[in-house]
């Protein structure tokens, strides 16, 4: 395993853990409460359910490396949505009332990296790719 592959694997797993925890947190708060919070910010309430499911399931999928590119694309969209709808007015570093969007930028950049990177050896994506390659070669 090359250094870059190792780093990509670590980035994928850690990003997966971060989003899994965020998804679990939304479920623990109660999706009705998250729906109300989203609505209070002008975001359609049903998006709370969409975000929670993508974060929870997507986090698990990233940890095991399944459909990494698709999940990463969805997470980029969620981070753009969070920045534009909630964080932008506070600025990059935030203000006295609200944190900034520096974390969302970092998470989005990791997601973008995973979106374009090749599947790493320690992923289900890599296993599926090798199975397909072997089947084609037969």
UniProtKB/TrEMBL annotation:
The source organism is Paenibacillus uliginis N3/975
Please tell me one Gene Ontology term that the record gives under cellular component: plasma membrane
In terms of InterPro entries, this protein maps to: DoxX, DoxX-like_oxidoreductase
Classification via PANTHER family: INNER MEMBRANE PROTEIN YPHA-RELATED, OXIDOREDUCTASE CATD-RELATED
Identify the taxonomic lineage of the organism of origin.
Answer: Bacteria, Bacillati, Bacillota, Bacilli, Bacillales
Subcellular location as annotated: Cell membrane
Q: List UniProt keywords, sorted A-Z.
A: Cell membrane, Membrane, Transmembrane, Transmembrane helix
Primary subcellular site in the record, as a coarse category: membrane
Pfam families (UniProt xref): DoxX (PF07681)
Q: What is this protein called?
A: Uncharacterized membrane protein YphA, DoxX/SURF4 family
Which residue ranges traverse the bilayer?
46-67, 74-93, 105-128
Domain of life according to the entry: Bacteria
Q: Per the similarity annotation, which family is this?
A: Belongs to the DoxX family.
Please report the record's description of how this protein sits within the membrane. Answer: Multi-pass membrane protein
């Amino acid at each position: 395993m090359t250094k870059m592959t190792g780093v990509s694997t670590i980035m994928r797993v850690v990003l997966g853990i971060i989003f899994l925890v965020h998804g679990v947190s939304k479920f623990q708060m109660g999706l009705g409460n998250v729906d109300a919070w989203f609505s209070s910010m002008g975001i359609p309430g049903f998006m709370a359910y969409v975000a929670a499911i993508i974060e929870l399931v997507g986090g698990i999928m990233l940890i095991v490396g399944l459909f990494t590119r698709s999940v990463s694309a969805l997470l980029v969209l969620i981070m753009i949505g969070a920045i534009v709808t909630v964080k932008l007015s506070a600025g990059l570093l935030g203000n006295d009332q609200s944190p900034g969007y520096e974390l969302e930028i970092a998470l989005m950049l990791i997601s973008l990296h995973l979106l374009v990177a090749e599947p790493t050896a320690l992923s289900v994506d890599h296993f599926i790719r090798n199975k397909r390659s072997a089947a084609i070669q037969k």
